[in-house]
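Example 356, ligand 2-acetamido-2-deoxy-beta-D-glucopyranose.
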Amino acid sequence: MELKVLFIFCLGLGTVLAGRDFYKILGIQKSATTNQIKKAYRKLAKELHPDRNQGDTEKASAQFQDLGAAYETLSDPEKRELYDRCGEECVSKEGAGGGGMDPFASFFGDFGFGFGGNGNQGQREVAKGADIVMDLFVTLEELYSGNFVEITHNKPVLKPAKGTRKCNCRQEMVTRQLGPGRFQMMQQAVCDECPNVKLVNEERVLEVEIEQGMTDGSEQRFTAEGEPHTDGEPGDLRLRIQTSPHSVFERRGDDLYTNVTISLADALAGFELDIEHLDGHKVHIVRDKVTWPGARIRKKGEGMPNYENNNLFGMLYVTFDVQFPKEELTTETKEKLRELLSQNSINKVYNGLRGF
Ligand SMILES: *[C@@H]1O[C@H](CO)[C@@H](O)[C@H](O)[C@H]1NC(C)=O
């Protein structure tokens, strides 16, 4: 139904051991949701990534393969059902034939954590297409809870075409005989003939993880998903996280800010209220003191999750603003209020801009 086809890869039938426990490999429960599966996969893939395990490479790479197979099966509802019914063997039989695609190519960018690729830097100068940088707008809700999104992009890919083209052009000195004993040396452009190529748009589905607490400007890099280069490698696709404005919360670092309008009666007499947070949980607020316009309270641990440590949360700042009654009060009510509040006139005149 969905574009699962891209994620199918050859399980290498002969070599796969039958009957691995994919749930155990991912460290999840049988009832795990697709989102939980992706999360678990993503976390373990980071830990087990071959680039990170220089020591026992063989073991790490085997674990990485197991992990890939587990994810590949359980993230696909149809395959998962098959697997739940009769184990890995069924899935292999039914799902084979994907054709040796790199299972990790289209997942979650390049794990964006400083590994991958730094091994072969500067070895040779390969022409590279331009990077494509794209803003990926995400909601605060997604950044609070984390999410996985699929983005479809049309990737221009070079395909062989009829005919030839000039390539590897360079300047060379050639000698021409003008007459007996007379030669002329001159520079000439010399090219090779290469098979022709044409640009074809290919639809690609990329799975992007929006991690909890990511900040604006952080990038997910997808290697070789950028502009192609006729004589070299394609550039990368870089997705840059941008937070869409939210109607209730504003984020500053890991802290959240919100405003609440209360009535004058509540401001004087106290109140209780719930603020619905980004994941739907309620933040309960109780005040029995007088709340003046601009008063601000802090709720610890109700801000955004920290990107480095998702168990740490910032602060939630709630600023109150007080709505005064708009209708004219009767003389009688006015008298009653004066009596009730028994507050003398103050009428202090001061320079508020300087804080005197
Ligand atoms: C909302 O709260 C902020 C502080 O968090 C404050 O600067 C701003 O004036 C408040 N807005 C209103 C309309 O009260």
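Summary: The radius of gyration is 32 Å.
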